[in-house]
Design a protein that fits this description.
The chain is α+β, with helices and mostly antiparallel strands. The protein has 3 domains: 96 residues, no CATH class; 61 residues, Signal transduction histidine kinase, dimerisation/phosphotransfer (DHp) domain (Helix Hairpins), CATH 1.10.287.130; 147 residues, Heat Shock Protein 90 (2-Layer Sandwich), CATH 3.30.565. The protein has 8 helices and 7 strands, in the order αααααβαββαββαββ. The strands form 2 sheets. The protein has a 5-stranded mixed beta sheet with strand order 2-4-5-7-6. β6 and β7 form a beta hairpin. The chain binds adenosine-5'-diphosphate and magnesium ion. The site of adenosine-5'-diphosphate (ADP) has 23 residues, from α7 and α8.
Length: 336
């Protein structure tokens, strides 16, 4: 129901009008009752007050309704019910408050959805290696299989997977909470690329070759350990998706006020629709969830957090005819 004062944008003005109207109605009706209808003064005053209250009810209708609704929605949210909205019936301060309240409830509902997704994803990711470990151990305990080196290797692989996942989750939550200080300083980006390639060569198949092309003396501003972690994530992915034989190219050059780092491979590349989504937590384009089919889909999410906390950017592009092209920009070191 529309409030008669609903179009006024000031709560103070509305209250003023209601008070003046109430006083006026009380005075007029008392005078009419006493002078014209010859009623006793006490009855006249009582009639005036009743009429004034009725007048306030009509004029102030809808003014406090959003406040009552907000209280009801807040109580429902405390019980875990999300998705309810307050009807905005006025354009005064209470209406503005109702708008802000609706925005806040929408954000809280989204945060709650993300939290539920996260818990579901984490549980799923932990259940897979734990289930596999349990199955192998049960077989060994029941005497179905021997604790031979092959079985132990499978168990070790699952344990490593669990360890990696827990480390990544911890990393992500620390980054999101913002309580992991970076050791920011100017550093040679070439050292980071050479270090990452050296480390990757230890695990990469022999027929995947690495090439590095860096401008001499190019320095970026940031935490070299963290940038190493970003580059390592990109190189790991590049190696995983490279054909055999394959070529992973690491490059760094200066572009205006930023250092541009690129990691290319000639694998299948990331589909157009996934170029942004691969940076979401737990997103794995190909949906592989096997023990060796890759990680949990956290690598690029962590990389984006790190790079953005450095004031840089990270994006994925496609190479033609195939392959992926990952581009990171970082602030250039002063006097570089
Ligand atoms: N170089 C690449 N080539 C093809 N797809 C890639 C590449 N890098 C990342 N992706 C896609 O992005 C997804 C997310 O990558 P990432 O966050 O590193 O997770 P993970 O490596 O744990 O799967 C991968 O599952 C894959 O589908
Ligand atoms: Mg990865």
């Amino acid at each position: 129901m529309i409030s008669p004062l609903g179009s006024l944008s000031s709560l103070k003005l509305k209250l003023g009008i209601v008070i003046v109207a109430a006083v006026w109605v009380t005075a007029v009706s008392t005078i009419v009752a006493v002078r014209w209808l010859d009623l006793p003064p006490i009855v006249g005053a009582a009639a005036g007050i009743v009429l004034a209250l009725a007048c306030v009810q009509v004029l102030a209708r809808g003014t406090t309704k959003p406040l009552r609704e907000m209280a009801a929605v807040a109580t429902a949210m405390a019980r875990g019910e999300h998705g309810r909205e307050v009807a905005v019936t006025s354009c005064d301060e209470v209406g503005e408050l109702a708008h802000a309240f609706n925005r806040m409830t929408a954000e809280l509902a989204e945060t709650d959805r993300l939290r539920r997704d996260l818990v579901a994803n984490v549980s799923h990711e932990l259940r897979t290696p734990i289930g596999a470990l349990q199955a192998v151990l049960e077989n060994v305990v029941d005497g179905v299989s021997e604790p031979d080196p092959e079985t132990l290797r499978t168990m070790l692989a699952q344990t490593r997977r669990l360890g990696r996942l827990v480390t990544q989750l911890l990393d992500l939550s620390r980054l999101e909470a913002g309580d992991q200080p970076f050791d920011m300083r100017p550093f040679e980006i070439g050292d980071v690329l050479h270090g990452a390639a050296r480390e990757a060569r230890l695990h990469a198949p022999e027929d995947v070759v690495f090439s590095i092309d860096v401008e001499d003396g190019l320095r970026a501003d940031g935490d070299p350990e963290r940038i190493h972690q970003v580059v390592m994530n990109l190189v790991d992915n590049a190696v995983r998706y490279s054909p055999r034989p394959g070529h992973v190219a690491l490059r760094a050059c200066r572009q205006d006020r930023v250092v541009r780092v690129e990691v290319d491979d000639d694998g299948p590349g990331i589909p157009h629709d996934d170029l942004e989504r691969v940076f979401e937590r737990f997103y794995r384009g190909d949906g592989r969830r096997g023990a060796d089919g890759g990680g949990a889909g956290l690598g690029l999410a962590i990389a984006r957090w790190i790079v953005e906390l450095h004031g840089g950017t990270i994006r994925a592009e496609r190479r033609e005819p195939h392959g992926s092209h990952m581009v990171v920009t970082l602030p250039v070191a002063p006097r570089s």
